[in-house]
From TrEMBL:
Pfam families: cNMP_binding (PF00027), HTH_Crp_2 (PF13545). Residues 22-123 form the Cyclic nucleotide-binding domain. One of its GO terms (molecular function) is DNA binding. Residues 137-210 form the HTH crp-type domain. It comes from Cohnella lupini. The keyword Transcription applies. InterPro entries: cNMP-bd_dom, cNMP-bd_dom_sf, Env_Response_Regulators, HTH_CRP, RmlC-like_jellyroll, WH-like_DNA-bd_sf, WH_DNA-bd_sf. PANTHER family: CRP FAMILY TRANSCRIPTIONAL REGULATORY PROTEIN, HTH-TYPE TRANSCRIPTIONAL REGULATOR ARCR. The lineage of its organism: Bacteria, Bacillati, Bacillota, Bacilli, Bacillales. This is CRP-like cAMP-binding protein. Keywords: Activator, DNA-binding, Transcription, Transcription regulation. GO terms for cellular component: cytosol.
Amino acid sequence: MSKTHYVQASIWEEYFAACPAVTLNKNSIVAEEGATVNQIYYIESGRVKFAISTAEGNEKIMYIVNKGELIGDMWSSAGRPYFMTATTLTKCTLRTMEPKAFIQVLLSHPELTEKWIGNLSEIMEFLVDHVSELVFLDKEQIICKYIYRLSFNYGEETERGIKINTKITHQLFADLMGCSRITVSKIMSVMFKRNIITKEDGYIYISDMEQLKQILNV
């Protein structure tokens, strides 16, 4: 298991290093649903969620991006409005680049273009999977699927098992699943007792990957 996937790797760091930086507090809106974004954002530190809102005002988190990832690259380059709202989950430092400059970077570095396309493909695959999971899987299977997916993006082999090198709270799982934190806590408690996963300093460790895969039938 690799330590990180290219989605998390800081392949963009050197290209955004000289770009203007902005620091945002937790719960700040980076891009609003329906608005046109004219900047590419590189996450130098922090975590950002993408969510959609219902007519009743309820929020559904679709996916989350972390340090080293981009915001706005899919929409601003095409001049299209966002169909989700991007909000900081933590205090964040972002660096900004004009869409034309970003496209020039891609044209000048074909290897980056290949990785960027791979990144976009993974996001699209995740969104399709996410909708399918909510429709066809039960809550335990959804949590297991999230942890299993995280093991590819952020997994690191350790003596305790595969460490997920990003902190995920029960509340964040609940927000992704559209259920209560209590429901997540009950499911996680069972997984701890079965020694499928353990937790230390806020990090999840997969102790028994085979049990996890059996729950998912993979």
